[in-house]
Design brief:
CATH superfamily: Flavodoxin domain
Largest sheet: 5 strands, parallel
CATH class: Alpha Beta
Number of helices: 6
Order of helices and strands: EHEHHEHEEEHEH
Number of strands: 7
Strand content: 15-25%
CATH architecture: 3-Layer(aba) Sandwich
Length: 208
C-alpha cells in the first residue's frame, strides 16, 4: 500500500483547472493502487500561515515562545506527511508568473535544515529521496516555450525547491492558455488528460 500526499493551492474552488486535474491524477494513482492511503491538504484555507517575525524562529530552530512552539509543531506535522508519502501530487496554478503564496508558505514550513536538507562542506544536500512528484500547473497564457518562457518563474522555482530537499523525480503536467476562452480551456484539460493516459501506458509497459 502506497501513501499519496495531495496539495491543492488554487483559490478558485470548483472553477479551478488545477484542482480538476489533480483529482484526475489521484484517480489514476488510486486505480493503479486501490489500497493507497491519500492525505489531502487544501492550502487555500490559510491553515498554514505565512511566516512572521513571531513564528520564523520556531521553524528554523527549536522554538521558545508558545507561538514559536506552535509553528514548530505545524512544521513537524507537515514534514511528517511529506516523509510518509511515496507520491506527492501538487496543484500549482500560476499567479503573477509564479506560485500562490499559500504554496510558498507550505514550502517555508517543510524546507528545514536538519530535517529535509542538510549543509556540509560540499554544499546543501536533500534528505528526501525515492519519491515521485507530479505537479499540475495551470496557466492562463503560454509559457512552455517562445517569448512567454522568460516570464515563467513558476516551474523553475518549483523544480528548485523540490530538488533542494531531494525530490528530483518530478513530472510537470501543464494546462496552458486556459484564459484564451472556453475552447482553449477544454483543449488544455484534454491535453493533460492525454498526457496522463500516455504515462499510464508507459507504466504498464514497464511493468510487463
Amino acid at each position: 500500500m502506497s501513501n499519496i500526499l495531495v496539495l491543492n493551492s488554487s483559490l478558485s474552488g470548483d472553477a479551478s483547472v488545477s484542482r480538476l486535474l489533480v483529482a484526475d491524477v489521484v484517480a489514476h494513482l488510486t486505480a493503479r493502487d486501490p489500497g493507497a492511503k491519500v492525505v489531502s491538504r487544501d492550502l487555500s484555507d490559510a491553515k498554514i500561515p505565512h511566516l512572521t517575525p513571531e513564528t520564523v524562529a520556531g521553524v528554523r530552530g527549536a522554538g521558545m515562545s508558545p507561538v514559536e512552539t506552535q509553528a514548530r509543531a505545524l512544521s513537524d506535522a507537515l514534514i511528517g506527511e511529506l516523509r510518509a508519502a511515496d507520491t506527492i501530487v501538487i496543484g500549482a496554478p500560476m499567479y503573477n508568473f509564479s506560485i500562490p503564496s499559500t504554496l510558498k508558505a507550505w514550502f517555508d514550513h517543510v524546507l528545514r535544515a536538519g530535517a529535509t536538507f542538510s549543509y556540509s562542506e560540499s554544499g546543501p544536500k536533500g534528505l528526501l529521496s525515492g519519491k515521485q512528484v507530479i505537479v499540475v500547473e495551470s496557466r492562463g497564457g503560454f509559457y512552455s516555450e517562445g517569448p512567454g518562457a522568460a516570464n515563467d518563474f513558476q516551474e523553475p522555482y518549483l523544480r528548485t525547491l523540490l530538488g533542494f530537499i531531494g525530490l528530483t523525480d518530478v513530472t510537470f503536467l501543464r494546462a496552458e492558455k486556459i484564459a484564451f476562452g472556453p475552447d482553449a480551456r477544454d483543449q488544455a484539460i484534454n491535453g493533460v488528460r492525454a498526457d496522463l493516459a500516455r504515462i499510464a501506458d508507459r507504466q504498464l509497459s514497464a511493468a510487463a
